[in-house]
Structure formats: C-alpha cells, structure tokens
Specification:
Chain lengths: 179, 205
C-alpha cells in the first residue's frame, strides 16, 4: 500500500512541475517611439524595445496581457486585468496591457478606447510585423492567437494562451505572490 | 502484496495516460508529417466540398479564415492570389471558416456568402459546421494555413503557419512561407520552413 501512495505522490509531483523558467534572452533596448494624439502619449515598441518588459528581475510580479481593440475576447477580459491591477497594486503587482492593434488604428481606435475606458494599467503598443521571429521569443508554445498572458516575477514565469475571468486570474496570480 | 503491485502499476499506467492526454490538449492537432482528415463541409454555393473531390490535385492549401478578423481580412487578397497561382499547378486553396457564428454573427453563413461575392473569392469558402474540423487540424486562430500533399498514405501535412512574414505591408514581405512550401513540394524538395507563427484572432467557440 505504501508503494501505491509513493506512486501517487510521484505522479502528483510530476504533474505540478509545469512552471517554466523565465526567458533568459536579453537584447539591447531601443528607445520607445512616442506618438502624441489628442494629449495622449502612447509608447510604441518593436520587439527588441519591448523585450525588457518580459525580463525584469525586481521584486514585482508582472502580468503582461497581449490584446487588441479588435479582439472581442480580449476586450471582455480587460476589466479583470484592470481590477487585478487595482486590487494588487500594494502587493507589488503590475499589469501591463500590450496592444497589438495595427499602427494605423492607434489614433483612430486604440487611443480613444484607452481614454474612453479610462484604463489605469500601463498600456503600450507592440508594433513588429516580423511575428514569426518574436512570437517564439515570448513563448515557445504561443501559436500567436490572442488573448495571451504572461505572469512572471524574478523566480518563475508562466504563459497562458487563453481567456480569463477575474477568479481564474486571481488564482493564477496567487501562485506568484504567495511564495 | 502481488495484487497491490499489479494494481499500482495498473494505476500508474492509467494516471500516466490520463496525464498524457491532458498534457497533449494544448498542443492538439497535426504536426508535420501527420495525415490530415478529409471533410465534407458546406460551401457558400450550398454544395458540399471534400478534399477528395479534387481528383487531379497534388495537394491543398487549407486555410482557416473568417470575415471578422482584421488579420484574415488583411490577407484576403493574398489568399486569392495564392489560389490563382497554385490552383492550376495542383494546389488549390480550400478556405474553412472555423468560428461559431452564434458568437460571431459577422461570420454567419449569409455573411460568408456576401464577403465571398464582394471580394470575388476564387476558392471554396466552407463553414466548419459544428466546429468539428478545426480542432482536428489544431488550428487556433485565423488565418491559419495548412499545406497538404497528396500521398499514398493520405494527405500529408507539410506546412503549418502563416502566409508570409508581413501582415501589414505586402510590399515589405520578405519571405512567402506558404508559397515557398508549395514551390518546394512542386519541385520535389523539402519545405524550407515547415512551421511559422503569426498573431491571429483566436477561433470563437
């Protein structure tokens, strides 16, 4: 019977070792391009410039959400990321919303959307058409579908190609802030 | 004790196989070299279309695409061009709309008909009714391309991924992944890049 318990324990342990170590790649940062549209400054990055957001090694836990105004499931889950940002701000959590909107939509759709929704989380735009080069750098398992999210801190990192509700998001975040 | 041993190894097998199944779930679908399923799906003209209908085809460019995704729309003209270029060479485009029209009314059958007419699609545009086909292929987004080669074993998956390397600007395209794949197959060569990635709209269930 002992053997059985041992086996189960082994299986359980194997099952829970899913976390990946953070992406080790580092590249030179390029300066963000700043674009002004009706008093709003949007930071726009190519992948090299953006990569630093995935590699921070400070005390914070980062929740990086890839979204776009044209992506309905992304818009649906956006309020949960906003709530997360507000609720956990004192627990060293920072939410960063990475827009993959088309550049020609920045002024027409993205900036009006940010203002209208009064988004409090940091919003940046990632504009790099060489997607096949940078998508695997974000995560080897990412097919490129959005919404997609990364939660990481200096100890661990997890990638999610899926939608979240607030409860699911909090339960994932808990794995990072209670250790 | 022996029974326990037998039982526990049996349990291990069960648990491990259950784990494998759950672990595979996220990467479900075809890989290069797999044989792709045929299907019988309704085209915008009301007729049912299967890969096997194309007796003289050497293969297929199967593209999961839709009306409502800006990336799919950005590629419409390039998909038409692909079909025009390769249909006669034996690789027709077969477009499949994988979204649930109840979640995405803009992708309803009548809307597909409209869009095909406006843009003058030269290829079938099929409704994945009941969403049974795209999960078998493992498509996750639109547009998502599968180049298949007709072989004795069946339709072998030779390329999975994007159409080319620049959705924004046709002029700035450097690598035409899907074309390169089909060209290689037509010339009896290995596909240079078998899997690529691109941002796309997740398939709506």
């Amino acid at each position: 019977m002992k053997r059985l318990v041992g086996l189960l324990l082994l299986v359980f342990l194997l099952h829970s070792c899913g976390d990946k170590s953070p992406n080790e790649m580092t590249q030179e940062k390029t300066d963000p391009v700043i674009e002004t549209a009706s008093n709003y400054k949007l930071d726009i990055y190519d992948y090299n410039g953006f990569e630093g957001f995935l590699l921070k090694k400070d005390e914070k836990t980062y929740v990086i959400n890839f979204w776009a105004t044209w992506c309905a499931p992304c818009i649906k889950e956006l309020p949960y990321f906003e709530q997360l940002n507000e609720k956990y701000i004192n627990q060293n959590v920072e939410v960063i919303l990475v827009s993959l909107d088309f550049p020609k939509q920045y002024e027409k759709k993205l900036i009006p959307f940010i203002k209208e929704r009064k988004l409090q989380s940091k919003v940046i735009a990632l504009d790099d058409p060489k997607m096949n080069d940078w998508i695997p750098k974000v995560d080897e398992d990412w097919s490129g579908a959005i919404p997609a999210t990364i939660i990481y801190n200096k100890d661990k990192s997890q990638f999610y190609e899926r939608s979240f509700n607030l409860e699911e998001l909090e339960s994932e975040l808990q794995k990072f802030i209670t250790s | 004790m022996k029974t326990v041993k037998v039982l526990s190894s049996l349990l291990l097998v069960l648990v491990v196989s259950a784990m494998t199944i759950s672990a595979d779930k996220s990467v479900d679908g075809y890989d290069i070299g797999d044989i792709a399923t045929d299907f019988k799906l309704k085209n915008i003209d009301g007729k049912m279309v299967s890969l096997s209908d194309y007796k003289n085809a050497k293969g297929y460019i199967v593209i999961f695409t839709c009306n409502t995704c800006p990336y799919a729309v950005a590629y419409e003209d390039r998909i038409i061009a692909l079909d025009k270029k390769y249909k006669e060479k034996g690789y027709p485009v077969i477009a499949i709309m994988p979204n649930n029209p109840n979640s995405k009314p803009g992708d309803a059958y009548e809307q597909m008909q409209k869009r095909a007419k406006v843009k003058g699609f030269t290829y079938p545009y099929l409704m994945d009714e009941g969403q049974k086909i795209y999960p078998q292929y493992g498509a996750t987004k639109t547009p998502h391309v599968y180049v298949l080669q007709k072989t004795k074993k069946g339709n072998e998956v030779k390329y999975i991924g994007a159409i080319d390397d620049n959705y924004q600007d046709v002029e700035a395209v450097e690598v035409k992944y899907a074309e390169d794949a089909v060209d290689a197959l037509l010339n009896g060569k290995e596909v240079p890049e078998t899997k690529t990635r691109a941002i796309g709209c997740s398939i709506k269930i």
